[in-house]
Design brief:
The chain is an alpha/beta fold. It contains ten helices and eleven strands. β5, α5 and β6 form a beta-alpha-beta unit. The longest helix is centred in the middle third of the chain and has 13 residues.
Length: 336
């Protein structure tokens, strides 16, 4: 019993809240996290305070050693951390240079979790708590007003709207074909938010270069970045980040909910907290050779407009979007 007590006193419980002090560049910053957060979540909180991107941070705490804090997937409850401890962060703010995410490792294994595991993740109370905390911490900045009565389309950037791995003198060469036509048509029925797993600087830079932020035929309601994501854990795939739409619904309940939201992303793992609202788009890679043949956004425009008048988008099986027809739509209207 004594050994067990000693062990429990040296680690943090999953629900326990920690107030940590992070020393960086001659100043001290207070960061609040919970035991069920990961090291990656801790780095996000530090990023909020310092503007140093998580991938640029190196955390130092002598009692842990460098390896423990270099693994973003480790849960803080697994580490001997207590409130009021002080750790040091080494890192540089990217004020002048926008670093292309090309230098980040590419995700090639877009795993598909089993249905039972997906249900377990989205219904797990610890993940709901993370979502509630993130909704309170991450305030979405509205660029253009939400429109009553419109549905919501949430779009990824990398490999969805833009080939971020290929190189070109002009970013427009890497833009997915028919992007502006797609956004213009969708805007008639949907508010549009763009959510990337990269930094806000990258989001604003690329969307600005592609002419998305000031287009005369449509408006972008909001931009979200990696700071709005949460970390979840699965039995088969371990710890990974995802994009919980509940964060948007919590902040704009009078406009958006699970029945009127659809999200496009090339990684299905990003939908794990809202699987009924996600559509896996074919990734747009090798832009120079595929630019002339890629029709994905043309076809998805037809799908979005076909389902726009349905009362509940979450009842659809978006994995079968290519087989959806106007006949299906008419049939649904008769039964509604």
């Amino acid at each position: 019993m004594a050994a067990a007590a000693s062990s429990s006193s040296s680690t943090t419980t999953a629900e326990e809240e920690l107030t940590l002090t992070v020393k960086w560049s001659g100043r001290e910053y207070t960061v609040r996290v919970c035991g069920d957060d990961s090291v990656g979540e801790l780095k996000r909180r530090i990023c909020e305070a310092t503007n140093v991107l998580p991938k640029r941070q190196k955390l130092l705490y002598p009692k842990l050693g460098p390896m423990k804090l270099s693994d973003d997937s480790v849960l803080l409850s697994q580490l001997p951390l207590k409130s009021s401890i002080k750790m040091t962060m080494v890192g540089t703010v990217e004020d002048e240079i926008i670093v292309d995410p090309v230098d980040a490792p590419e995700v090639v294994d877009d795993f598909e979790l089993g249905q039972d595991e997906v249900v377990d993740i989205k219904d797990k109370e610890v993940n709901k708590q993370k979502l509630r905390r993130r909704a309170g911490q991450c305030k979405i900045e509205i660029r253009n007003p939400c429109r009553k009565g419109k549905k919501l389309l949430v779009l990824d950037i990398d490999y969805t709207l833009f080939d971020h791995r290929s190189t070109a003198e002009n970013p427009l060469e890497l833009m997915r074909p028919y992007l502006h036509e797609f956004l213009s048509a969708a805007y008639a029925e949907y508010d549009i938010m763009i959510w990337s797993a990269t930094s806000m600087k990258w989001v604003e830079l690329k969307m600005g270069q592609l002419g998305v932020l000031n287009h005369p035929n449509y408006k972008i309601t909001a931009l979200l970045d990696h700071m709005a994501m949460i970390t979840v854990q699965s039995d088969s795939r371990g710890i990974f980040d995802c994009k919980p739409l509940g964060l948007i619904w919590a902040q704009f309940p009078e406009f958006y909910n699970s029945s009127n939201t659809i999200m496009f992303d090339d990684l299905r793992r990003n939908f794990v907290m809202n699987p009924q609202n996600g559509l896996v788009i074919r990734p747009f890679r090798r832009a120079h050779s595929n630019r002339g043949s890629d029709q994905e956004l043309v076809k998805l425009t037809q799908y979005l407009l076909a389902i726009a008048d349905l009362s509940d988008l979450s009842e659809l099986d978006h994995s079968r979007w290519e087989s959806f027809s106007e006949a299906d739509n008419i049939k649904r209207r008769r039964h509604s």
